[in-house]
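Final report, closing paragraph on structural work. Over the funding period we assembled a curated collection of sequence-structure pairs, and we close with a single example.
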Amino acid sequence: MLNTSQLFPFLISGLAFGAVYAMSGTGLLVLYRTTGVLNFAFGAIGAMGANITWHLIEKTEWCPDWLAYVACVVVSAALTLLYGVVFAPRFANRDPLGKMLGTLAFALILLGLMFNLWRSQDARGFRLPTGTRRFEIFDARVTWTQVVAVLFALLVVGGVTIFLRATKIGTAMRAIANDREISSLLGVPVRRVETAAWLGSGVLCGIVGLLLVDLFGSLDMVLMTWFVIPSLAPVLIGQMRYLWVTFFAAFVIGVVEAELNASNWGWPSQYRKTTAYVFAVGALLWFARKRTIMISGRATR
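Its predicted structure, as stored:
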């Protein structure tokens, strides 16, 4: 029989990973709504920033740890902005699939570059200052990184909500999301707004990269690169539109995935990695239940 005391540590872990899903989903959603680009390079960019942070900490003597952490965010923002300013405009007239494939190609380029620069098979990683400090709740050890992840996710989603409603750039982003052509005709600086969206998404790439290394306990560039795939699940549940639905869906997915990891669940724990996809497919089927299909001039449901 499952002991509830065994579930609590997994609940804490699930909330932390749910927070990372929420931050990733926010970056993906805002960028998609503003530019029409689904950024599959999100994870790879964060992984590149994290690798540079590890290199600065382990291979140099002049760089303090705090500067290495800042470098992760700066490099991630710069790479995202580079793609958004240099490459994304060349895909502007493509369909959504073409735009997505452009970011996928960028992810593969970054992944190959990381393998060439850091070929060592030795275990690599680093701890944030919050990762070495722990406290206990109901006999479960909690790191401050887990607490920071949850609090920062709340801050990010709340801050983005206020930003979109209370600032000129945020209002312009919402206008572009509703109708890009009319917004352009009304004088909205589309290119400038898109640049801001790319930059903000890049900052979140770096923050997510730092948190993932600490939460995973190692720097796995492949795992971090494709972390973007399950991160899309809460975005799909939010119908690529609703920020707070994406936020809560991310936490539900994170908690359910973590709880399935409890050994006493038996065979369901073997499929915990499919949690995000099951939720996403279930949501898509639910949304499609009332879709009207025209067959031979007749409407069917």
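The chain has one domain: 4-300. The mean pLDDT is 86. We thank the funder for supporting this effort.
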